[in-house]
């Protein structure tokens, strides 16, 4: 187990080897979207910029929290309807009455993120901020705990940084490991409720196996193995195709002389907001699939 210079935490559970053991890298990102203070106005309002992709309409009138515990509310310079998705139209109000007072609490470059409780909705639905991608981190931890230590493959459980600002941590992690297979363990947007995205992803209909997103095309052999394992183990699954967004799969894919890649993704309503919603059973299915994939030995490559 080690950390690197950018802050990734990499946990290696060695396998016993065998005929064709593989180096399997699972990547889940520890970072979450938020905002950085870029200026403090005379009035004490904080001008902010994006850390990752935010939706202005979702941030508007919501609470945010800084690392030092200072909280604030996101407001808009003018009607939110006219802000489009320009984050420069938003500000954070931390309750001060001027710049001097604000500067005692917050510095240029400080980051804040959404602030709100974790909730259970009806059935097995969970609602929280930062499910993207703390649920992936949870899946890696659980799968690591369930690794019996006698698998054929070397499994690298990578808790990576800075995915939301350009899949940066996974680039560095993948270069160190040079895996045979890279699996992004992350979320994917749902298409089963009224919103601006279309596709086949449904919450509660099983773990999603990545076929394609704008940043990566999954390896056909790896995808076939993932689907076969779901069938064998009775894990409900769905094939994931999205036409917006991306994951750490892209950076693993393009490492070294190329890495076979796919993703194990939890379908998520209201992604990149303070109130994302997922199914607990989908999360558990992802852990079961990771365990089965880690133990696989009949590789066709
Ligand atoms: Zn993510």
Descriptive report:
There is one protein chain. The protein folds into 2 domains: 2-32 and 130-294, Zn peptidases (Aminopeptidase, 3-Layer(aba) Sandwich), CATH 3.40.630; 34-114, Elongation Factor Tu (Ef-tu), domain 3. It is globular, with a radius of gyration of 20 Å. Helix 3 crosses helix 7 (280-294) and helix 5 crosses helix 7 (280-294). It is built from 7 helices and 18 strands. The mean pLDDT is 97. It has 301 residues and is of the alpha+beta class. The structure holds zinc ion (ZN). The site of zinc ion has 6 residues, from helix 3 and strand 13.
Which features characterize this protein?
2 domains, alpha+beta, binds zinc ion, Elongation Factor Tu (Ef-tu), domain 3, 301 residues, six-stranded antiparallel barrel, nine-stranded mixed beta sheet, Aminopeptidase, 7 helices, single chain, globular
Task: Describe the structure in brief.
This protein is 23% helix and 31% strand. The protein has 301 residues and is α+β, with helices and mostly antiparallel strands.
Distance between the termini: 28 Å
Query: What would CATH call the architecture of the largest domain?
Result: 3-Layer(aba) Sandwich
Q: CATH superfamily assignment of the largest domain?
A: Zn peptidases
Ligand inventory reads: zinc ion
The CATH topology annotation of the largest domain reads as Aminopeptidase
Summing up helix and strand content along with how strands pair, one would put the structural category as alpha+beta
SSE ordering: EEEEEHEEEHEEEHEHEEEHEHEEH
The CATH C-level class name of the largest domain: Alpha Beta
Q: What form results from the Cα inertia axes?
A: globular
How much of the sequence lies in strands comes to 25-35%
The number of strands is 18
How confident overall, as mean pLDDT? 97
Whole-number count of domains: 2
Classify the helix fraction into a percent range.
10-25%
Low-confidence stretches: none
* Count of helical stretches: 7
Main beta sheet strand tally, sense and closure: 9 strands, mixed
Radius of gyration from the alpha-carbon trace, in angstroms: 20 Å
């Amino acid at each position: 187990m080690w950390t690197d210079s950018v802050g990734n935490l990499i946990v290696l559970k060695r396998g016993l080897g065998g005929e064709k053991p593989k180096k399997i890298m699972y990547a889940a990102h520890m970072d979450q979207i938020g905002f950085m203070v870029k200026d403090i106005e005379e009035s004490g309002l904080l001008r902010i910029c994006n850390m990752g992709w935010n939706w202005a309409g979702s941030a508007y009138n919501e609470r945010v929290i800084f690392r030092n515990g200072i909280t604030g509310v996101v407001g808009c310079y003018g009607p939110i309807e006219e802000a489009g998705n320009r984050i420069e139209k938003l500000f954070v109000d931390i309750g001060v009455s001027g710049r001097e007072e604000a500067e005692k609490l917050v510095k240029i470059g400080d980051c804040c993120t959404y602030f709100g409780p974790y909730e259970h909705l009806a059935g097995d639905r969970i609602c929280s901020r930062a499910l993207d991608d703390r649920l992936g981190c949870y899946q890696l931890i659980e799968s690591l705990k369930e690794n019996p230590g006698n698998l054929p493959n070397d499994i690298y459980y990578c808790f990576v940084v800075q995915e939301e600002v350009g899949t940066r941590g996974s680039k560095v992690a993948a270069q160190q490991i040079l895996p045979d297979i890279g699996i992004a363990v992350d979320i994917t947007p749902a298409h089963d409720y009224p919103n601006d995205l279309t596709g086949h992803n449904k919450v509660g209909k099983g773990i999603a196996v990545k076929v394609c997103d704008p940043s990566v095309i999954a390896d056909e052999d790896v995808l076939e193995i993932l689907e076969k394992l779901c069938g064998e183990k009775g894990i409900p699954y769905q094939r994931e195709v999205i036409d917006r967004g991306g994951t750490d799969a892209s950076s693993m894919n393009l490492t070294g002389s190329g890495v076979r890649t796919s993703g194990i993704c939890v379908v998520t309503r209201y992604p990149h907001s303070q109130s994302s919603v997922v199914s607990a059973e989908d999360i558990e299915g992802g852990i079961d699939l990771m365990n089965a994939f880690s133990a696989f030995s009949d590789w066709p490559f």
